């Protein structure tokens, strides 16, 4: 029992550390955005540091993820071939996310739900530094977030292949994903959690993190169009 608690504590610590590292990298973009209008030279330095750390973290995350799969991988995660059937099912998952987004936006338009506060902040950041905020949001964030909230999360806590483990894994993964996008428990948290649930289901169904990354990419891209 003591050994189990120690192992789980180490996993929780490692998972939290990965989130902190990602948030610190994201804070470099926030700093660049803040100085974009006041001190462009300093903003460019922040962007340069951000790009260097993005490259380093992508290499690190990829190495850690593949290392974990080699050590213990009962769910048989890995690289699966892209086929027409798989792509068609990925498109179906995207349609599900799109329907959720449209339904939620209609509730906001009709004043049945409030506008997410983080959405307002995001739009403000994009106005101040459009190119890099869009690049980060569409191309970089999906990779980091899928590694953390799907890849590492299931490897650390729900690697066991069972129905109960799958249900709890998807539920908790989505809730953590939702909370970290709102930093509070609200109705809006459920919107992000529902997106997290679809992404977690995608990862577990296809057993290839590239599919959930692609779906996450398409979702974020859709918000810009």
TrEMBL record:
<keyword id="KW-0472">Membrane</keyword>
<dbReference type="GO" id="GO:0080120">
    <property type="term" value="P:CAAX-box protein maturation"/>
</dbReference>
<feature type="transmembrane region" description="Helical">
    <location>
        <begin position="164"/>
        <end position="183"/>
    </location>
</feature>
<dbReference type="GO" id="GO:0006508">
    <property type="term" value="P:proteolysis"/>
</dbReference>
<feature type="transmembrane region" description="Helical">
    <location>
        <begin position="47"/>
        <end position="66"/>
    </location>
</feature>
<dbReference type="Pfam" id="PF02517">
    <property type="entry name" value="Rce1-like"/>
</dbReference>
<feature type="transmembrane region" description="Helical">
    <location>
        <begin position="189"/>
        <end position="206"/>
    </location>
</feature>
<protein>
    <submittedName>
        <fullName>CPBP family intramembrane metalloprotease</fullName>
    </submittedName>
</protein>
<dbReference type="InterPro" id="IPR003675">
    <property type="entry name" value="Rce1/LyrA-like_dom"/>
</dbReference>
<dbReference type="GO" id="GO:0004175">
    <property type="term" value="F:endopeptidase activity"/>
</dbReference>
<dbReference type="GO" id="GO:0008237">
    <property type="term" value="F:metallopeptidase activity"/>
</dbReference>
<keyword id="KW-0812">Transmembrane</keyword>
<feature type="transmembrane region" description="Helical">
    <location>
        <begin position="135"/>
        <end position="157"/>
    </location>
</feature>
<feature type="transmembrane region" description="Helical">
    <location>
        <begin position="87"/>
        <end position="109"/>
    </location>
</feature>
<keyword id="KW-0645">Protease</keyword>
<keyword id="KW-1133">Transmembrane helix</keyword>
<comment type="similarity">
    <text>Belongs to the UPF0177 family.</text>
</comment>
<feature type="domain" description="CAAX prenyl protease 2/Lysostaphin resistance protein A-like">
    <location>
        <begin position="129"/>
        <end position="222"/>
    </location>
</feature>
<keyword id="KW-0482">Metalloprotease</keyword>
<dbReference type="InterPro" id="IPR052710">
    <property type="entry name" value="CAAX_protease"/>
</dbReference>
<keyword id="KW-0378">Hydrolase</keyword>
